[in-house]
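Recap from last week: sequence in, structure out.
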Amino acid sequence: VAVATSCSIALLFSMVYRECRRDGCHFAIALLLTILGTFASSVHWLARPHIFTFFGLYLFARHLERYRRGEESAKNLLLILTLTMLVWSNAHPAFLVGLAIIVIYIACESVVSFVSGGDFRQQSLSRLKIYALALATTFAVTFINPNGFGLYAYIFAYLQQSKILSVTAEYLPPDFKQLHAVCTALIFFCFVIGLAMNKRPPGLAPVITALAFAWLAVNSTRNEPLFAIVVVPIVGTMFAQMSAERLLNTGFTPAPWVKKLSERVKTVSANMDEVEATCTMHILPTILTIGLVLVCLMGGRIGPLEIVTSKFDPLTKPTGTLDFAKANNLDWKNCFNCDNWGGYIYYKTGNRVFIDDRLDFYGSDFFLDYGKVINMDPDYKKILAKHKIEWVLFPKSVFTENLKKTGDWKTLSEDQASVLLVKTQK
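Predicted structure tokens:
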């Protein structure tokens, strides 16, 4: 699973890089932009179904833009978007983002057709009809799922749980002290520079799309990867047509040494760019991917040599305390556990847990009770008593230290990541 997810992410950003190159962006700039996008998206590199959203978003954004520029037929656009949505809507609920992008293109094309005239207006109206048809077909296929309309009922019910979303880390605004957030900001700065240096306007639809996803990224950490996937190719296109003179001054005249150095750099980089453009077979990553898969099928080893490890990190997971709990046959019905460890505990023990990180399945009232306990609200003891909690498995934190200070709990076991507290008998 880890290899499949890793290779999928690598494939996605190789596609992002190739899209920048396809539009004429110099390979060095395309590489830099792709690296920034990769780091920006790393905040959500998890083996979860949102990987389908990454690919679905990329395909929707790029094919809509290719059709707008006249590089793709209407038939091909409708076929790709419809088939993509059929898979996407059955894999991850963020397929709504795909519909939103089509709406953005419809709105922008409506503005363009309204203010234009002549043949250009007719072309715009023609594109508008295809976008509307794409919206209708992609929306229709979302109902081809095991729950039918119930899929939308679930999504809207989940989004209304504002109390849960407001305390879920990935839904909070990014911390711009973190690398992924810094890279997100740098991509946006490149977008602004690209607008200033561009020889010709990139188009209303891609600009509005980029701004919309920038707004999403600023409001929620989990949207940073989506921003990177959508905006990096747009910036690549703008940088392919950039002009330093437009940025510095209309009448910009370089100094002699700057002109000489610039000519030298252009000559060298042009040769490198031409050579890189011929590298299209991707033999090395293909061999490495196949090799990794074969190694995984052999248990991660080639003879005595371990190539791929599949272990949980003892610095982030309660490996030692969990072994202690199993060895001493502690009753999981009486355990209060960390929500982010719920899935891990169930995977390792097969026992039902108090809570896991699928918070919407538990309901806001239950989650609020959980929050009151870890924040040690005045009625936290009543909540623990209501659920007959006898022991706690939690990360080493202010919460566990405060529990020990009450005198009602003592440490039974601990490891690098966690502490196991048991209720004292009084």
